[in-house]
Amino acid sequence: MAVKKLLSGTGMDRMPDMAFRAMSLIFRIRDALLHPDRKLEKFGIKPGDTVVDYGCGPGGYIRKAAELVGPGGMVYAVDLHELAVESVDRLVSARGIANVKTSLIRDYSSGLESGIADLVYSLDVFHMVADPARFLQEIRRIIKKSGRLILEDGHQPRALTRQKVQDSGLWDIAGETPGWLVCGPR
Ligand SMILES: C[S@@+](CC[C@H](N)C(=O)[O-])C[C@H]1O[C@@H](n2cnc3c(N)ncnc32)[C@H](O)[C@@H]1O
Which residues are near ligand 1 (CB < 6 Å)? Predict the structure, then answer.
């Protein structure tokens, strides 16, 4: 049980560095074989949008997000793990990607301006979040009134994801797919 919890990161927020490095290696193989970034095409991202990858990890979704928002848009890659931010910084600098900025989350504060995001997506993260109310409050702060939050369940049942969103009192569930909820700010 403890090993399962460590591997999935459930309720953990910050993973130990070694676990983050192991995850990054596994995700590199995942990304090369399965191209999970194709799911971003289903999120309705438009050229010129400001998008936030909330809990970006090693950055498997960043290139696709940058491509979809185009040169007139911006992608913010945010994570509470220093290794995640370093990894995305390395990726964008190696590839010369100009429309991605990183930010290190500290104590549930993303450091981003209020009301800037057209879309926030948080993929394979929510099950890890120790304080979902503060997490959802911070995303509510940075999203536009017309914005949307794509929230994947990660390693938790849909009923628990829904419960946490409803308990926050800040979001309406506007839609759902087998993989994620689409939420709008209340
Ligand atoms: C399993 S990884 C997923 C990374 C990426 N979204 C992906 O799917 O490739 C989860 C990431 O969420 C981050 N994370 C955990 N708790 C978080 C929180 N409260 N706020 C932001 N990021 C968090 C972790 O540091 C980790 O990088």
Answer: 9, 13, 15, 23, 27, 54-57, 60, 79-81, 84, 105, 123-125, 128-129, 135
